[in-house]
Amino acid sequence: MVAAGLAVELAKALGEAGVGAAFGVPGGGPNLDLVGALLDIDIDFILAHAESSAAIMAATHGLITQTPTPVIVTRGPGATSVANGTAQATLDRFPLIVVTDTVPAAQRQRVAHQRVDQRAFFAPITKASATVAADVDAETLVGLLTVPTTWPFGAVHLDYDASGHPDADAHLEVVVAPDTGALSAAISAAVDLVGQAERPVVIVGMEAAATPELAEILVRFGAPVLSTYQAAGLVDTNGSVGASLFTNGALERPVLDAADLIITVGLDLVEPIPAPWTQAAPVVRLSSVIQLDDYLPATIDVVGPLAETARTVLQPNHRWVDGEATALCSQARDHIRHAESSDTFGPVQLVETAIAALPETITTTVDAGAHFLAVMPLWPVSEPFRLLISNGLATMAFAVPAAIGAAIARPGEPVLAFTGDGGMSMTMAELETIARLQLPITVVVFNDATLSLIRIKQTAEHGGDRAVAYQLTDFAEVARASGIDGYVVNSALEFRTVLAQDWDRPRLIDARIDPSSYPALLAATRG
Description:
Distance between the termini: 59 Å
Helix content: 25-40%
CATH architecture of the largest domain: 3-Layer(aba) Sandwich
Strand order of the largest sheet: 2-1-3-4-6-5
Radius of gyration: 24 Å
Structural class: alpha/beta
CATH topology of the largest domain: Rossmann fold
């Protein structure tokens, strides 16, 4: 293949993998060939302002569409700048292809400008890294493009060298089929243990969310279900079995304390917070991959096709009755509501006001920061991947680019992005992307001019305001300057009035909240 030929072949392989859009910040090198080749086959290219934001857009699009969506960047500074978004994809289990230009192999001895060992740089934050070059074969390309959407999802890095040679040892992950004898024995033991349990509780993780047929199995089983942040919506949070969220914190502890058996279904050990596991009940763990971490001790490990094993193991023979899971969920939500005074415009009141104004169909993205302590336990969601947050990496600057990726993946549907002032400051440039594309995104900023979650954790020796406080920014004015509607609200009534309209237009709502309830929210959720 000549240079343009490599671009055409890679674009073709992406198209055959179901990719419908690409994102990035191209440089002046061969990656422009790839952008052109993608556009030639009607794969859209979304120009972002920052490489990390572009990666989060692409990874979110990839998660929703279940495709290896690419982010395209230049070599050197483009590659190093895309690192955070790449790590987000891998640790949050979002499918992503990272395509970087590179110093051509033939020039590497004489060219030091922008030369970084990009393969080594990306190795710790990707599932695989390879060089694709002029004589790469189609089978290798197809193999590389299957890795991001093979569980656990994550990022694959491709150094794009149109003049060189591909890797002789390009790393491809090999999925090993489980030992059928061991699987059969594990299933039999799990069936016995589940059959003896009177009050089992199920914890579902992100792998389960990527297996939608599990929803019916869990509802039929009828025991309370706790969902990780990434699995929220697999079972309806307002449905018959949804009991609350699972973070390994304080909020769900009453549910787990009532259990005589805990069954994890597709729980990825990157999902819980790193607090000690204190539950005495035995654990049955269902997953399609071997869990090597000893974070959560399992009495029985069932490693095999997730839906198939769950259908066999989760046979209802318990003493839970209808309504108990719903009551547990209501108790958890009331615990959150009681953390805030009803006469303040704080994070809880903001979230409940937003819930009351939601359109019928929406995708919600949430940034890292104190505000998620109010959003995540209260937010209603009835489908997987309708509530998105960075959890494994827990990076700020996620919500706005993720909202863009979601809006491209679900064209015409409204998207709501919740962010703090810190995360908004990191991604303000992408407001122009929203305006340019006229995406139906509502950005809500919890604005208290402070890194509030960090402030809660400060002691007297930790630098005070100099470490956590900003000057107040008028984000509504920034939004208007970027080409979208901007509003400042100081009360629930003002917020409700603005929210009631224009879900089909890009807009930003700068909510000047009272942050005083954050310490109580942290105590209620985490302990």
